[in-house]
Amino acid sequence: MKQVFAFLLLCLFAQSAWSQKSVKPELVAKDRREILQILKRQTEDWNNGRVDKFMNGYWPSDSLTFIGKVGITYGYQATLANYRKRYPNRDSMGTLKFDILQLDFPAPNLAYVIGRFHLKRPNIGDAEGHFTLLWRKIKNRWVIISDHSS
C-alpha cells in the first residue's frame, strides 16, 4: 500500500512540474493577452447591450457550466437564456467593470481566472461580486468552459 501511495504522490509531483515547465513563458504571455482581450471585449459588448456578443467568450457547447445564485446551468443556450431573462433591458444590464485578481495556467491549454465584477445600475441599484472562470483552448481559441459567479 505504501508503494502505491508513493507512486501516486510521485505522479502528482511529476505532473505539476511538467505542466509548469512545459508551458513556454512567451506562450503564457500571449495566452494571457488573448484572455484579457476577450474579457475586455466582453465588457464592451455588455456595456453596449449586446448579450449575444458577450456570450462569444463562452464555449458554445451543452457541456458549458454556469454556477450562480440560483444554481447550476448546463449548456450555452441555457446560459444565454438566463442572461436574457435576468437582464432584459439596458437599465438592468448597467455598466460592467471587471477587476482581474488572478490569472494562472495550471496546465497547457487551461487557464484559471479569479476576478471581481461590478455592475453600475443607477436606476435599480448596483450589483457586485466575485467570479472564477475556467478556460480551455479549443481549436486554437480560448473559451470559458465553466463560470462561477456570486
UniProtKB/TrEMBL annotation:
Signal peptide positions (record): 1-19
Stated name of the protein: DUF4440 domain-containing protein
Pfam family, one: DUF4440
InterPro entries, per the entry: DUF4440 (IPR027843), NTF2-like_dom_sf (IPR032710)
Entry superkingdom: Bacteria
Protein's organism: Spirosoma endophyticum
Keywords recorded for this protein, A-Z: Signal
Residue ranges annotated for the DUF4440 domain, each copy included: 35-144
Entry keyword Signal: yes
